[in-house]
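Predict structure. Input: N-acetylmuramoyl-L-alanine amidase, 222 residues.
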Amino acid sequence: MEQKKAAGLSRRALFIGGGAALVGGTAAVYGEELARMWWLVPGIDKQRTEGEVDHKGARWVAASAANLRTADRPADYTIDRIVIHVTQGSFASAVRVFKNPLHAAAAHYIVRAKDGHITQMARELDVAYHAGNRSFNERSVGIEHEGFVDRPEDFTDVMYRSSARLAAGICRRYGIPADREHIIGHVEVPGTDHTDPGPHWNWARYLKLVRAELEDRPPARA
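Output follows.
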């Protein structure tokens, strides 16, 4: 994914340069701290590595740049929601359409039904066009699940468990409570005309798995 470029001197350079001027001769001592501080400034472009993923074990396949907006979340937009989707098609077809610039939509992740494999198609830093609501796009991470809303057999145990690990990691990174106010279905997004994940998605089971992941894997110390 191509990183945004600012005209002239970058705000990062101005910030670090100003900080160095303030500390004067002690700039070398505080260099490492200053280098970290700029990440906290809203609107600063964060460094990106091609192919890097936010969820360990996910495979990176880039969505079309037309299907998302490059951002610096959570510095510029607070992330406080996870939106659960169902593809209404195959895993392969979801990957294909998210790579298509004419589709005008993409989720951050897709979870495969047969084995729980996860493909990441947008960085969590960025605003993916998945919810059909600008505010919810900006504040949420979207997880697609392979299947159809009217086929409960598509929601496999391995899919639930894999998605729960993914959701728990997102909750941990951004301090999102693992409840139905903060982990919602696409159908619950204001203004949407979608019905997914549908009546066969087992919310009680899913949230139990997410909470178990959070309890079993406490956040690592920085």
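Residues 56 and 166 are 9 Å apart (CA to CA).
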